[in-house]
Amino acid sequence: MQKITAVGGRGLPLRGNDIDTDRIMPARFLRAITFDGLEQHVFEDDRKGGGAHPYNRHPFDVSSFQGASVLVVNANSPHKTLKDLVDAARKEPGKVNMASSSNGTIGHIGGELFQRRAGIQMTHVPYKGTAPSITDVVAGRIALTVASVISTRPMFTAGKLRALAVVGPKRTPALPEYPTVAEAGVPGFGVDQWYGLYLPAGTNKAIAAKLQEVVARALLDPATRKTLLNQGLDVVANTPDEFAQICAAEFSKWGQVVRKVGLQAK
Length: 266
Fold this sequence. Notes:
Blueprint: H1 2-8, E1 14-15, E2 29-33, E3 39-44, H2 45-48, E4 64-67, E5 69-74, H3 82-91, E6 97-100, H4 106-118, E7 123-126, H5 130-138, E8 144-148, H6 149-157, E9 161-166, E10 193-198, H7 205-219, H8 222-230, E11 233-235, H9 240-261
Parallel strand pairs: 6-7, 6-8
Antiparallel strand pairs: 1-2, 2-3, 3-10, 4-10, 4-11, 5-8, 5-9
Helix pairs in contact: 1-7
């Protein structure tokens, strides 16, 4: 936010209490009010990619960055590799349990896609947030979960979790030694977890273009980009039109998975 202030000349103060706690749609976001009252929203891809499908409403449309997630198991798990995990799940369908931060999140539907690509069946256990799901994997009550590098790296560097693979389509600079799921034996699988800045539909294009320019310059600042990369976040800083194409493609891709699984909002 300091970088955006420096580049844009005026602040975009965050209101930290504006978190989507009702979980009507399971996305985590921050809301900012600019000097002219325009609302901006930073959404995780749960809302505009797969997570929007089980729900009847999904709000806005408009630059972005991608975050890396990893598949992790307990440090004492018998599954030393992704192949071990897949073999165990294939041998005893439904016995291996998979945690997610909530129903309908990218961790949930990404896990469903993983099962289909690997030809296995696991039991999904939804939690109310990432922290409790990771806690139960650390405690050995749940076999595995998929979560962001930011959320999991402290645990597996401390020896409490074991990372088996990166779930994205390519390796992440934050964890270059870890293979992707596809490299580890499940071809055709890759899930990007991305974050984007949205504006209300109908926002003046000149305003949207100016905000995109300011945010992109801030994100592309070398120091900022290095910090984000260390946290598993790769800056994209694309244009509104390019980002709209990503949203449309992701919505279509995950819609197919959601319909096959039969997910519905409750």
